[in-house]
C-alpha cells in the first residue's frame, strides 16, 4: 500500500500539468507553429517539446532551447517578454500527428501543457470559371485540393 502512495507522489513531484489540451492543426507539406505559454519566473528556464507520454525518464524530446533539434524540421524560439515559446515544424508529415507536451524545466518539477497536433492532407478551395461563347454564357465551379 505504501509503495503505491510513494509511486503516486513521485509521479506528481516530477511533473505538473497545466490546463486542458490545446488542439493545433496543420497541413501536410506546410509549416505549423505550436505556441506554448508559461508563467512568470520561468523566463530563464530551459524549454522543450516532447512527443508521446513524456514520462519522467522516458522523454522523447524533439527540440529543446539552446540545442539544435535532431530533426532539422523542428525549431524552438522563446519570447521571454511575452512568456511564450514557439516550436515551428516545417514540411509537416502525417506521422508528426499526435500528442506532444510543451515542457518547462524546473527544479524537481517540470511544468507541462498538452498539445494535440492534427495533420490534414491539404486545403480545399473553390474556383469559379466563367466564359462567354456567342450568346451563351457558361459558368462552372470546381473544388480544388492543394498539396
From TrEMBL:
Cellular localization per UniProt: Membrane
Membrane-spanning parts: none
GO cellular component: plasma membrane
One Gene Ontology molecular-function label: transmembrane signaling receptor activity
Keywords: Membrane, Signal, Transmembrane
InterPro entries to which the protein is assigned, alphabetical: CD300_family_receptors (IPR050671), Ig-like_dom_sf (IPR036179), Ig-like_fold (IPR013783), Ig_sub (IPR003599), Ig_V-set (IPR013106)
Signal peptide range in chain numbering: 1-19
Keyword Plastid set for record: no
Pfam families in the cross-refs: V-set
Stretches assigned to coiled coil: none
Predominant place of localization: membrane
Domain (Immunoglobulin): residue spans on this chain: 21-120
Protein name (database record): Immunoglobulin domain-containing protein
Source species of the chain: Cyprinus carpio carpio
